Amino acid sequence: MPLKAKILNHSVQEQAAKMSTQSPIPKEEPGDEPDDVLFNTIYGVRTIELNRPKKLNSLNGSMARKIIPRLKEWEKSQLASVIVMAGAGERAFCAGGDVAALAQYNTEGPEGQARSKAYFGLEYQLDHLIATYPKPYVAYLDGITMGGGVGLSVHAPFRIATEHTMFAMPETTIGFFPDVGGSFFLPRLDGEIGTYLALTSERLKGVNAFYAGVATHYIASSSLGALTARLSELVFKDYAPMKERLAAVDATIEEFGSGLPHDEPILLAGEMRMAIDRCFKHNTMEKIVAALEAEQDGGRMAEWATRTLKTLKERSPTSLKVALRQMRLGTRWSISETFQREYHIASRFMEHPDFVNGVSARLIRKPPQAPVWDPPTLEAVADSEVERFFMVEGEERLELLSPTDYNQYRYGYLSLPREVEVAEVVRRGGQSWGKVVDGFLGQRNGKVGVREKVEEVLERMCDVDGSGDLVWRNRS
Questions:
Q1: Of the four listed, 98, 370, 374, 465, which is most buried by Cβ atoms within 10 Å?
Q2: Could you give the dihedral angle defined by the CA atoms of residues 9, 10, 13 and 17, in that order, rounded to the nearest 10 degrees?
Q3: pLDDT per residue over 321-335, tens digit each?
Q4: Mind telling me the catalytic residues?
């Protein structure tokens, strides 16, 4: 592989914007692995290679303590123009955090739980630093990209999927919640896709990570090495604004686009996508389950509904209810508040039995076993227990390493158009199918995938009136 308060306490967001940025830059500690991250300089490119291939490049504290100081150093360097992060080996970008080690810590009582909480604080500081980084940052999602690997990539302006990409947020399978900024990026995906991915841990392979909005580009894995070399040739004037730099990087990546695979249609499309939105729009797990059961009554999506219900029954009931609440509240959180809130949620889970039970059963025991959840059913998880995960009153906020904050991604124009963008254009009136598609192609400079994405939205969501203009369907 090439180199690759209270739940609704709005004062928390205001405090996040004014937060102290004096948190010290972490340093390597005795016992940290010497070569778990490799750094390199290729002209203006600075590369970060996650180097634990036997562990699928799972992120740990040792790696975070190496990456953060380098990013802060490069932030100040005029010679560092573009950051590229990739994973070593043939299988993974980063398969997540090293949760097996954290589960072991948690069995040691409060002291061990404190070590686990400290790890999440460090990880979220790194993720927030990437999410607010002032230079172009490119992540090669060439292989398994799950959990902690998502945090290292999904908030960056450039996320490149390949035919090897395997994306998922599998946290509810191990008694945890979709963290690493999942509260921010998942609810901002189209419709209820984010809720569906958060609760079911559904995997998106290859180009479907691109179609869903997880990745911003899709190119062949074999082109990544050449892309890195080409990025190293870019030269920016010292005073060039970020938007100009991003445009140059974007154009360079597009040079390596070789078209989309014709044998991999959009997965979350058509009737399946409509069923996802129907079933996962509800605000309680009980209503989602009831909606899925209704889909089983002879409809076209009956088989999907049965399979999805089976999946949900295997997940931690506590994780499901917390994750659903997280998806609904996350639309209101800024990127800084997201990581501060998630730090508190993660800390609560370190004290909850489902995390140790889930990790031990799924990842440590051989062969893997079905976890024993506590409580064992959705009905047994009280609302008050769910709310406890979101209480922040009297808690110390996680100090972040960047003062930058925002409420919506600043570089969404580098991705495929979102469904809300298409809806806005259609609702202006006087828009034909061809006019809408051509408009977005022009807006995105002919970007690969725009036609496929926009046409899927139009086919699913629009009718055509007698004049040949599109009419947006309002769905309940």
A1: 98
A2: -120
A3: 999 999 999 999 999
A4: 97, 148, 171, 179
